[in-house]
Structures are given as C-alpha cells and as structure tokens.
Amino acid sequence: PLINGLYWDKWYNNESIFSFKSILYENYLLGAPRMRQIRVRNDSCEIHTDFQRAIFSCYNHYSKIYEDRDNIHEKRMPEFVWEEIRSFAKNDVWGQLSTYSGEGGYIVKLSLNKTIAIQTIEKLKENLWIDRGTRAVFIDFTTYNPNINLYVVTKLIAEFPATGGMFTSWQFRTLNLLENSSQAQIGLYICFIMFLFFIIYYLIEEFFEIKALGFIPYLQSSGWNYLDLFIILISIALVFFLICRQYIITKIFDEAYSAELTDHGYEMNVGNQTVSLEIDTYQFDTLGFWSAQFSNILAVLSFVAWIKIFKYISFNKTMSQLSSTLSRCAKDIAGFGLMFFIVFFAFAQLGYLLFGTQVKDYSSFGTAVFTLLRLILGDFDFQSIENANRVLGPIFFLSYIFFVFFVLMNMFLAIINDTYAEVKSELKEDNEFAMMDYFKSISNQILQKLGAQKDQIEEIQEAIKQTQSLERHGDGRRISFGTIRQELKKRNLSDQEIEMLFAKYDIDQNRELDQNELDAMFDDLEGKKKSIMKEMEESKNKHQESVGHDCRHLSQNYDFAKIAKRVDRVEYVLTTISSKIDGLFASKTNLE
C-alpha cells in the first residue's frame, strides 16, 4: 500500500507518466522518500535470574541510552549500517510512546522509480531489516502542489513498543515557502515592514523609559510593563525564526542541484548541462519544524496582543468591574484553589490506581488528570470505568461529580459572584458622585461660554468708543469700516465676524456708520449684554440649588451606608462575645 500510494506512475487508462512523480496526479514528490529505523540494543534490559538459562535476548523500551548503532545482523549493506544525519537537520521526533533521537538511524533511500523501490523493500524484508530490536520506523517525503504553491512535509510514524504490536501516527506540515508576487503577498510584505518599524519604535521607547526609571522601578510602576517587555521579546524571537526559515529555504534549493545523476533525483536541463534535482527530505523536515515554531510564537504573540487591549479599555465601566473583581478575589481564589487541587489530585491518583491497568484514559497519572478535567466539562466515558470495576467505577464517578462538580466548583463561582456584587455596589456609590461632578463641569462650561460672549460684547463697545474719538465728519459722527476694522482686529475678532457685524448696521451701505446707526448698534449690544448677564445669574442660582440638594442627598445616602456597615460589624462582634460568655458560664457550671 505504501508503494502504491507514493508512486502514481500511470493514468487511469494505464498511460505512463514521465514527468515529476506525483501523488493524486497533482502533488509532486520533491526527492525520493526515505525510511529511517530507530533500534535498541539486545542488552538494554536485564533478564530475571529464573529465566536466564532459557531466554537470551531482552529489548527494553526506547531511550537514548539504550539506542543501538551497530550494524543490523552484522550486515555491511548501506541500509543495515547506522548513518548520521547532517547536523543541519537534526530534530527529535515526538511519538505516542516516546521521543526519538534525530541524530541518525538506519536510513533507506527509496528510488523515484517504482520498480526499484519495490526491489529495495523486498531486499529489506528478505534480510529482516525490522526485528525485535526495532522501536520506530519513520517514512519521510515532501510534496509540492504548483496549483496552490504549497509544500507538505509528511512524516509517517510506526512505533514498536516493548510489549509487542505497533502504534501508527503521522505528521503533516503545510508550508508556504516560495512567495509569488500577488497582491495578497505584497500586502503581507507591507505589513511585515510595518511590524518591524513598530518593534524598533517600542524597543527604543521602552529602553529610554527603563534608562530613566531603572529596571526594577520600571517593572514596579505598572503590571502592564511586564506584558510590554514580553511582547517586545517575543516579537524579536519571531523575526529571528523568520530569518532562520529563510536561510534554510535558500540553503535547501542551493544544494538541490548536482552534476551527478542518481536514482533519487530528477534529470533537468540547465543551459547546456544535464543536472540532477535532488531535494534533501530531512532538511525539509527541519524547515517544517522551524515553521511550526514560527507559527507557535506568532499564535502566542497574537494572544498576548489581544490581552493588552484590556489596558486601553479599562476606563469602561464593565471592564473596570471585571478587573476589580478579579484582583480583589485573587487571594480567596488562591486559597480555595489549594483546597480544590488537593481534592482533585486525590481523585486523579485514585482513578489511576483503580483503572490504570484497564482503561486507557487512566493509564498514567498525567492522563488521569486530563481525563478528570474533561469530565468537569462533560466529556467522559462512564462505560469504560464501569466495565473495569462494576462496584468502584460508579462510586468513583458519583463521588467525583458530587464533591468536585457540585460542591467545589460552585464554591469557586460563589467567591467570584460575591466579590462582583460587592464591587458593583461600590462602583454604584462612586458613580453617583461622579455624575454630580459631571453636571458641575457642564454647568461651569456653560457659565464660561456666557462669560466669553459678555466679554466679547464689551470689547466691541470699547472699540467703537475708541474709533468715535478718532473720526469726525460733518455735523455728526461717522466711523469708517477701515478704522473700526483695525480696532476690532486688535481685540482678536476675525475678518468674517467684523464684516458681518458692520453689514448688519450699515443700512445705507456706504461703508460708514452714522450717528443713528451707531446708536442702534449700541442699543443692540447693551440689550444682549443684559440678557447674557441675566442668563448667567439664573444658571448660577440653579446650579447652586441643584448641587446643594444633590450633595445633601448623596451625603445622607453615603452616611447611611457607612453607618449600616458599622452596625453590622458591631452586631457580629457582640454575637461573638456573647457566644464566648455563654461558653465561659457553661464551663463554670461544669466545674462546679
């Protein structure tokens, strides 16, 4: 099945495919697949003395200290000789049973030719390449889909435990390595450049802030500073991983072409020379590893950046209630958490000892912990523990549900709920005073605007009086537009305001104001001035009455709340004292 799945060398009409070898006709193999075996030594475990005369071989579970690097069955064929992987591409492999070394192994390079690959597999079977010492076999290959410009680094894992049998798993890592010049990719480049500028800007800003305050005072000044430093450091790590990934990509494709033609590469014409294109699968495996770490760091950075939004929305009433509730109940939750985890780990240990040999979800203490966490969320397999023990299984399940789910979890919610109610009541009292301050500030703003209008009218009146003393024409007094404009400009009036004021009273439109027009202007200005002063007086009186009433009302409510709290405390103390006195009298009676 492996060979048939890797080598799609014919169309559905049995016509041969002579181009790049592909999977599903669209995903091209980059280089030949490779197999790598990890083994343990025959002396990796000790046989019991009662069986040493009958049993002569013992292969332990996998560990680096037990790893075998000698030739398999003392054969000299390349596939049976331990080979070191190039230091550039050494990555340990996480399996279901253990973590396996990435330094090397017994490596088999399959050909791109299906017939030769089948012959290689048959040779391995004939010479017993896999035996009792085998602990893991990895099959690595990389495919490229030109339709979507994506690479897939594939690792098929077969693990052989010391108990016998086989566990299979797989890893698929999708990579976007060779970017095209699409609009989306150009947009990503622009975003990355902006990201670099932001890193440099905030790095310089935090540096000068630390330099001014000192490192310890800087951290103590605000808890958000820890988060800022973490974001900067993880952003720098993100750029570092991106540079490493680009370096590996360049190195892989620079080393892909060679003049030596082999069965593991594709023949290509480059200029007048025929060369072999052979991609190192293990280097792609390293590239997939670094790309996965890049994605992990990017995910953490995105999460922390979202958390930082709380810093800028803390002024919101709901957000302030949330942060105040969590900070105030932190000590209570910590104390309760200690009690909770004592009970929780006790149940985890109980489940591990009761069902560990029969139920997979309790096969180790760690898996038992995660199983009980899932049980809190409603994800459980009651049938498996009931089958393991028909008496203790249901008792364990019901007791855990009662003590942890119904009692401890509700205590946890009660702590948060009580603290939230307390914070909400306090914020309600504070908001009443805040509303009073708000209305007071609005009233002051209104008074300031009215006062500014009054001052402006007085400035205009003074400017007109000044111009009247400067100009006299004929029998009466006349003021020209140019003269009054100069005086009003000195008093910070705009040309538009001056033009509108002059046009309103220049009835004959001769660009001059005569005595009648001046009298009309003075009368209007004086009337507006009196009206503004009256409005200011009324607004001031209403504000004083409202503030006085609100202050009396709020102070009464606030005093009443304080007195009520003190009375409750006194009642509690008196109750405690009376109970102790009763206890003393009872003790005295017993002594008599």
UniProtKB/TrEMBL annotation:
Protein residues bound to Ca(2+): 506, 508, 512, 517
The protein's name: Polycystin-2-like protein
Membrane topology: Multi-pass membrane protein
Keywords annotated in UniProt: Calcium, Calcium channel, Calcium transport, Cell membrane, Cell projection, Coiled coil, Cytoplasmic vesicle, Disulfide bond, Glycoprotein, Ion channel, Ion transport, Membrane, Metal-binding, Transmembrane, Transmembrane helix, Transport
S-S bridge residues: 45-58
GO annotation, cellular component aspect: cilium; cytoplasmic vesicle; plasma membrane
MF-aspect GO terms: calcium channel activity; calcium ion binding
Alphabetical list of PROSITE patterns matching this protein: EF_HAND_1 (PS00018), EF_HAND_2 (PS50222)
Keyword hit for S-adenosyl-L-methionine: no
UniProt record similarity statement: Belongs to the polycystin family.
Gene Ontology biological process terms from the UniProt entry: detection of mechanical stimulus
Top-level taxon in the UniProt lineage: Eukaryota
Places the protein is found: Cell membrane; Cell projection, Cilium; Cytoplasmic vesicle
